[in-house]
Amino acid sequence: MALYTRDHLPGLLAGMASHPARVFLLFGERYLCRAAIAQLEQALLRETGGTVHPIDGDQEEIGTTLAKLRSFTLLPGRQIYRVTDTRLFHSRQVAKSVWDRTVKAHAEAKSEQARRGLRAFLASGGLDPMAPDSDPAALSATEWQQCFGFARPDGDLSWTRAYLADGGETSPTVPSSDPGDMLAAVLATGIPANNVLILMAEEVDKRKKLFKLLKDEQAIIDLSVETGSSSKAQKEQKGVLQDLIRQTLAEEGKTMVPALIDLLIDRVGFHPVAAIMELRKVITYLGDRSQVTRDDLDLLVGRTRQEALFELTSALARRDLEQSLAITDRLQENGIHPLAVVAALRNFVRGLLLLRSLIERPETGFKPAMSAAAFQQTCLPRLKEWSQWKKELGGHPFALYMQCKTAAGFSLPMLAAWLHHLLKAEFRLKGSPLAPEIILQHLIMALLSRESQKRSELAG
User: Fold this and answer.
1) pTM of full prediction above 0.90
2) Is there a contact between 233 and 226 (Cβ–Cβ < 8 Å)?
3) What is the DSSP string of 238-302?
4) Strand, coil or helix: what is 162?
5) Nearest residue to 297 (alpha-carbon basis) of 280, 282, 275
6) Residue 407: CB atoms within 10 Å
7) 336-345 pLDDT, tens digit each
8) Fewest CB atoms less than 10 Å from the CB: which of 116, 274, 319, 430?
9) Half-sphere exposure of 205 (CA within 13 A, CB side)
10) What are phi and psi of 336, to 5 degrees?
11) Hey, is 186 helix, strand or coil?
């Protein structure tokens, strides 16, 4: 067998019915993994029939799973044991990415994703999520570094306790042997011909022996998509969504011109689940009509979170109080969680603060009146010299140029004051009896009030 990508998936599925692997590992973007697993299960069961046995990897007893895998059954057809969120490939190598995913889910008020991510994060560091001494908020900086391989984040981490307390399940028994070695031993001795194991994970440590074993002898499907805002990442993300949209349209016998596919992607952003849900909503509305029109999209696919939040940050950059308040109200009407609004604003202000501090240095040579071409020739190479900010400065040159021009319009004291206001708003949203819409309105007025700006200018 080998390591496959999503481009190889159709060919792989075509040969699965007659000669399937004994174990499949799918990792990467969650929606793509789930969709591929559904196709894989359909291909495996098409001729023989059988049963799918779902297993939650978060609560899996690995010994029980392996016992089922190597046992014969009286049930007819192929027996598929599907483990979602397997912990077999967790390690310190993936801890940082799991933590970032958990923090993002928490900021967006996606409690189930945050809970699942936090438990996976603790497991990646060798900690039992249900043990009292595994509380991440109580770990010292040294303990955190030893467990997870990166520095303990600044700030209050007490929010993690609520997700751990909300687990509601009993902690699985920790096996005495390495789970990967246990699976390898079962595969070496052989398993019944009708038994298949499907493993799914969002992050994997490719250095693990089990990963190499499955790559050499079984089947691994890599469905990961490059993240970030670089042109390469955005191109890959857009390609994935275009493929999903075209596939869904073909399945439903509908058509859409390429320009409208791009418009749908612009409105939804890189959220495969949201893109397909919005598209299916439009398809249902079409009825007997075969082609999606611009009017259909305008009627049914409104401004999504990504677009609306971008509008809000743009209005703040212009210091347009009236428009900022109107967009904030619209965000609330669209069901976007207030903490997600604060998180987006915090990231925006931090980005401005970084760029403002960098362009203040004489060696960058930045001037607000300079052209984009001059910026790219003189300033950009100097900014790139700060390797510690490689990720933050890795976007498109023109986009970075416009961000620097925006940052130049704010003083460092003013941006620091904005972060203070955002922190106060976050605390109020988490512990104040005030309505969230009032807190957000107060936040916007605090950021853009003339008095606040004057105080910041005097502090500078």
Assistant:
1) no
2) yes
3) HHHHHHHHHHHHHHHT-B--HHHHHHHHHHH-S-HHHHHHHHHHHHHHHTT--B--HHHHHHH--
4) helix
5) 282
6) 23
7) 788 888 988 9
8) 430
9) 19
10) -80, 130
11) helix
**Residues near 428 by beta carbon (within 8 Å), at least 6 away in sequence:** 434, 439
CA distance 157 to 22: 42
Instruction: Give the model's pLDDT for residue 335.
Output: 67
The whole-angstrom separation of Cα 419 and Cα 292 is: 43
**Residue 444: pLDDT band with limits 50, 70, 90:** very high
Percent of the chain with pLDDT over 70: 90
Query: b or e along 365-400 (b: 16 or more beta carbons within 10 Å of the residue's beta carbon)?
Result: ebeeebeeeebeeebbeebeeeeeeeebbebeeeeb
Report the distance separating Cα 326 and Cα 67, nearest Å.
59
Give the whole-angstrom CA distance, residue 141 versus residue 412.
29
Amino acid identity of 352?
L
Lay out the sheet containing 23-28: strands in order across: 3-5, 219-223, 23-28, 195-201, 78-84, 50-56
Of 195, 141, 130, nearest to 163 by C-alpha is 130
**pLDDT per residue as tens digits for the range 278-337:** 899 999 999 999 999 999 988 887 655 556 677 788 888 888 888 888 888 877 766 678
Task: Extract the tokens encoding 228.
Answer: 């970030």
Neighbours of 46 (CB within 10 A): 13
